[in-house]
Amino acid sequence: MSAPFAPPPGPLLDRYRAGDLRALARAVTLAEAGLPAARPLLRAARERGARAVVLGVTGSPGSGKSTLTDALIAFLRQRGQRVAVLAVDPSSPYSGGAILGDRIRMLRHHADEGVFVRSLASRGALGGLSERTLGVLALMEGAGFDWVILETVGVGQSEVDVAAACDHTLLVLTPAGGDGVQAFKAGIMEIADVIAVNKADLPGADRTVRELMAAQGLGAHDEHTWFAPIRRTVAAKGEGTEAVVAAVEAHRAHLGDEGLQRRREARAALEVRTLVQERLLRRARELGRDLYARVARGDLDADDAADTLLRGDL
Ligand SMILES: Nc1nc2c(ncn2[C@@H]2O[C@H](COP(=O)(O)OP(=O)(O)OP(=O)(O)O)[C@@H](O)[C@H]2O)c(=O)[nH]1
Ligand SMILES: [Mg+2]
């Protein structure tokens, strides 16, 4: 029986290679689940080579990351560029129902073949990236998008993860609550390649920009230091998006081919290390039980148990 809305025929891999967005959606699902069927797709994605601008968007909860991402989509589409977005759902108390809101907002692009939006659960780690995030980004890039945007809520470690996963990091701050000063104190500013002071329609934006600039001057720097351009945005009205895009492109020019290559190598290292970690921990969970009992009884010390697991000769 053939369903009325059956996907177009042809193996998934061919359809993915041809840029079919439904095939991409399926590929992402497989990759997210860590299924072996995702492997040929991931390989195909990488064979195409890296060419997208991979932009991480991070910042405190509610700072306007999704609104700004939506505005960036609109601007980039006007320029005829294709955009894929991966929103990592932190499943945290911070974001509440925001993901639903994101979906509804970005739905205005849903009929547009040049836009692909997907949310990914972060599996508990607060705002952190799952083991699969980098694979999913690679699939999006391999599907031929010009920009691949990763949105995550910045809570502690996650900003650092985002910076490691992307070519460029856009930090979204707001004039409210001394956001800028807090970012500086928490060492978050260091990972920013571009800073958006969003909600610039609210009071205090100028002051926030001044504080951020002063903070930038305090850090160690020389003639090669990249000072993250600080741009005022009113994402809700699409204001400042063009300046943000220009700043990201300026950072890309600053990195040059060599700098981009270094970032991509760091990303590859993160991806491989994450997979190794995941596999080792799975093996430890599955095979370690007897060893743990022996460690608990005092028959084996923990170091020897770890060595045994790593050697895999159980
Ligand atoms: N005044 C004003 N409000 C804005 C602006 N941009 C976004 N907002 C509002 O700020 C709220 C949060 O926006 P989101 O885009 O959902 O923020 P977010 O950073 O994605 O939030 P989380 O994903 O939950 O961390 C929404 O009510 C937006 O309408 C802006 O430029 N000015
Ligand atoms: Mg959001």
UniProtKB/TrEMBL annotation:
The keyword Acyltransferase does not apply. It comes from the Bacteria. It is an enzyme of class 2 (transferase). Its EC number is 2.7.-.-. Coiled coil: none annotated. SUPFAM superfamilies: P-loop containing nucleoside triphosphate hydrolases. CDD domains: MMAA-like (cd03114). One of its GO terms (molecular function) is GTPase activity. Keywords: Chaperone, GTP-binding, Hydrolase, Kinase, Nucleotide-binding, Transferase. InterPro entries: GTPase/Isobutyryl-CoA_mutase, GTPase_ArgK, P-loop_NTPase. Belongs to the SIMIBI class G3E GTPase family. ArgK/MeaB subfamily. This is LAO/AO transport system kinase. It comes from Deinococcus soli (ex Cha et al. 2016).
